[in-house]
Write a structure and sequence with these properties.
Number of domains: 2
Oligomer: single chain
Distance between the termini: 32 Å
Order of helices and strands: HEHEEEEHHEHEHEH
Helix content: 25-40%
Number of helices: 7
Strand content: 15-25%
C-alpha cells in the first residue's frame, strides 16, 4: 500500500475511523509537523476539534539521528533501556537531553498554538494521530503523556507502521487503527508518493482553520 500524500492518508484513516463519527466528546490530537496534515483530515471528517501533542526524540550522544528515547511536554520521558545500556549512556546525559528537548517542545507549542489553550481531553475519546510510526519512541511518550490527562478512551490512528512497533504501542492504548503494517519497513516516507517536509506555517494555518471550522 502506498499513499499519495499526507492528505490522502488522512482521508483514508478517517474512513477507517468512521465508527467514531458522532461520538460525543471526540478530540483529535496530532503530532507535528506531518501528523497535523493527517490529523486535520481526520478532524474534518469526524467533525472533531484538532489540537497538537508534541514529543521530541532524544538522540544518542554521538549520533543524534539514533533515537534512544523521547520526551513529552510535561517532561515525561521514555527510553530504550537496552540501547541505553549497550551504548553506555549516562544518567546525566539522559536528564540533560530530556530537559533540552522539553524546552524545544515549549517553544514549538507557543509557535503552533499561539494564545489558544490546549484542548481538555479528560473524560473524552482522544484520537492520537501521526503520518506514521517507525521505532515508536516519540509516539509512546505522547501516549503516556495523554494517559495522565485521563481520557475516557485513547485511540492511536496512523496510516503505516511496522508490526512490532504497532504491537508495542497497541498495549498502551485502548484501540489502535493502523491501515498498513508491512513486514519490511525502511522509513515512513517510503510509503508515500509525496512526502515533502511540512512547514511550521502550514501547521499553524491548519490548526487555526480547524479551530474555526463549524462543528456538528
Amino acid at each position: 500500500m502506498q499513499f499519495i500524500d499526507r492528505r490522502d492518508a488522512g482521508r483514508r484513516l478517517a474512513e477507517a475511523l468512521g465508527f467514531l463519527r458522532g461520538r460525543p466528546g471526540l478530540v483529535v490530537l496530532a503530532v507535528p509537523r506531518g501528523g497535523v496534515v493527517v490529523g486535520a483530515e481526520v478532524a474534518r471528517a469526524l467533525k472533531a476539534p484538532l489540537d497538537i501533542v508534541i514529543a521530541r526524540k532524544i538522540g544518542a550522544p554521538d549520533n543524534p539521528e539514533l533515537a534512544i528515547g523521547a520526551v513529552a511536554p510535561d517532561g515525561t520521558a521514555v527510553f530504550d533501556d537496552e540501547m541505553v545500556q549497550s551504548l553506555g549512556i549516562s544518567e546525566r546525559y539522559k536528564q540533560a537531553a530530556a530537559e533540552q528537548a522539553r524546552q524545544e517542545i515549549e517553544r514549538r507549542l507557543r509557535l503552533y498554538r499561539g494564545d489558544r489553550p490546549p484542548l481538555d481531553v479528560a473524560g473524552k475519546t482522544a484520537i492520537l494521530t501521526d503520518d506514521g510510526v517507525a521505532t515508536g519512541m516519540t509516539t509512546l511518550a505522547a501516549i503516556r503523556y495523554l494517559r495522565k490527562q485521563r481520557p475516557r478512551e485513547l485511540v492511536l490512528a496512523v496510516p503505516v507502521g511496522p508490526p512490532d512497533t504497532v504491537a508495542m504501542l497497541s498495549r498502551e492504548v485502548d484501540r489502535a487503527v493502523v491501515l498498513y503494517m508491512p513486514e519490511v519497513f525502511w522509513a515512513v516516507g517510503a510509503f508515500y508518493q509525496r512526502f515533502e517536509q511540512t512547514s511550521d506555517e502550514e501547521v499553524v494555518a491548519l490548526l487555526r482553520e480547524t479551530a474555526e471550522a463549524p462543528r456538528a
